[in-house]
Amino acid sequence: MASVKQAEETMLRAPGFRWWHGIIIGLLLSYVPGSLLVAGVLLLPLVALRFVDPNADSQRIMIVLFYVGAVMVHPLHEAWAGNGDWDTCIAQITNPITLALDWLAVGAAWLVAEASAIGGRLWNAEVARRERKSIEKRIAYLQEEWMSSDDSPAA
Amino acid sequence: MADTQADNSQELLIAERYLISLDHKQPDLAGCATYTAQDMTAAGNSYLALAPVAPSARLSEIMFFRHESVIPIQAHEYSAGALWILCPHPPGPSLAEGLGLWTESQLIDGVIRPFASLFQSLEAARLTCRNIRPDNLFVGQGLHKIVLGPLGVGAPAENQAVVFEPLSSAVCRPSARGDGTIDDDIFSLGVMILALAIGKLPLEGLSDTDILRRRFEVGTPAAYMEGQNVPVGLRSLLTAMLADDPVNRPSPRDLVTIAPSKLFTVRSILPARVPLMIGGNAVYTPQALAWYAGRHPTEFSGLLQRKVVSNWLHSELELSVMASLIEQASASFLPAGGGKAVDPATMVLTHAISVLDPAAPMFWGGIWFWPEALPRMVAQAVVQPATPDEERTIRNILNFMAGNPDAFVSAHLPRRQGQQITALSVVARRAGAKGLELVRRLPYDTNSFLPCLSKRCWEERISLPDGLSQWLDRHAGIEDLPEDVLGRSGFLDDQMRSFLEACCGRQGIVPLSLSQKAGLPVWLADLTLLAAVQRKFDAKPLSFLAKRALPLLETELRQWRSKTSRARRRVRLGKAAEDGNLGVFLAVVNDPTGLRLDHRQAQEAEAEISNLMRVMDEAPERRAANDREARNSGEFFSLLTGIAVAMASVWLEFCR
């Protein structure tokens, strides 16, 4: 509960947070508190990311959200199937695999982004190197052809 | 002459027909070295082969001239560019070996009538002999009929002794006598008749100057016939033929109709009662005064200025017209700015002399000459100058005369001199050259048979352009043309250049304009000229020359900036040199279009290089942009993966 409230508080400070968001969250809290708790707990890594990396923009949050969402599908489904049963919800959020997967999802998002960026950079570097080599070859040829003042090796 | 050196028997086969034995030298005929020749196609036909060094400019017309009293020119052939004239053997010994004593009727039938008809034919063809002298006249064995040696194989009148020439050409040096007129031939014939009639040459044993002095003193007929036993019937004829004034000599028609003791009247020249003293000599006639004026110009000028000459003409000779003309001429001694470059004193002298003796040759620059003979004089002075200054003097005269014909037109010269100067200036204008070059070219332009006068090949008598180029090809070795000479003064010397240019000019081509010539190195200009000659005259390959020029042209290849095209052209040069086609050879290097294309491509290549350099310099900036892009694409890929994972998760949760 405390963590949920904390999350709400942090969200409150987020820009673009409107009063009707509070009403929706209030309604959800009153009708499906269990599911909301599950969702809140599972969204904690996002909040943590926000704190750890202040530069994380909405695009980064969006990416992570997809990964976290993928993990959240199963617990929320369980919570829904248990009709918001408090025990089920507690069981879900205390399930270490779910929690581990949740935190790992953030890491996976970051890893995939960085790895592909590095891959792209390497690729670009290779392309640039090859280009440079061909340019140097072309320059050398042109200089040999047009700039060599005189030759006369056994005219 | 390569083929003659090949076999030791010294035989030369020309036109694949005439075999000339160079060891069988005959006595000179008409002033040319003479050898015996065999006709290979008709056994037993023997000829004389003449090697003329200075053929007449009108040889091409003379070659077709036939007359029973002249040894005909059977054929003319070129061997290695040198002209050979083939003619039959003369019928007997020449008169130089023995004149004999001829009677009046023998002279009329055997000499005067045939020669009169010869002169008539010549006059119709506008030709002259100018070679009637004992060693050129041949008499058949036991016959009293003489035959003249071949015409045109020597320069006109050049081998004539002073005795045989009328005063109008005897005063000139041999090369300056010019073609003359048929009257001059009649005079020579008169001398010959006199010599045959009296059995010896007149005035024998005197020096040329003494002969001239004697002739000017008393007139030629008197000088020659004085004290000689001349047949009475010939006396009037000879007086007329030997007259100093050409107008008084009989015409060929008068001679054809000659009969024994036919009388000719000559308007006698009255000598002055009181002589005029010039240079210690007493002068009785205007003609003699003209001659002495040339010998003592300063004294004569003084007499002119003091009006002594005009007074003498007026009072002693009663020639009032001539006196007033002389007075007019001497009036221009006053400083009236005439021609700029003309020395007025010399011009006045020329004018005064032409007034005194209208039949005399031109006197200018200290020498007597006929203007038409000037090219021949230049040629003679180049080959064997009589005095060290001679060449320069003649060169200046010719140069001035060809360039300023107006200066002479205004000088009121006799008609014949004026015509010759005009003709000369026409040829000079056509040559399109100036100054020294013009002087060198005029001999070739006026005489297409003149051999190249270069000291290097004069001995070879080369008068065909392809003969000269072949000769050059044989003499292009390092020993004939050292490297430094070749680089400095080219393959040809000035005479060869003028010779080849004149040959090209006759064919209507100008291989190199003056401006082009100025821009090229000498050897390249020479090669261009030779290439034009080779193309125009269909000469054989000149591979030795081309090989000699190869290193020089290869340095010219530096103009090409492309290495591969240099290499390609070098290969082509080598091949063209091997083939000996100078035109192709030069075209490899002389290719303005190709050179322009090459330079444009070189500029393009330079632009490309600088462009590529800039691209390379921009590489770090591009890398930063690439990194940013890689990060973005990494995030994008991550987003796509996230979406896929989320969708897979949903599918796993709900649809399984």
TrEMBL record, chain A:
Protein origin, superkingdom: Bacteria
Keywords of the record: Membrane, Transmembrane, Transmembrane helix
Transmembrane regions listed in the UniProt entry: 20-49
Protein name per the record: Uncharacterized protein
UniProtKB/TrEMBL annotation, chain B:
Residues of the Protein kinase domain: 1-264
PROSITE patterns the record matches: PROTEIN_KINASE_DOM
InterPro entries xref list: Kinase-like_dom_sf, Prot_kinase_dom
Source superkingdom: Bacteria
SMART domains (alphabetical): S_TKc
Alphabetized GO MF terms: ATP binding; protein kinase activity
Protein name in the entry: Protein kinase domain-containing protein
Organism in which the protein naturally occurs: Gluconobacter kanchanaburiensis NBRC 103587
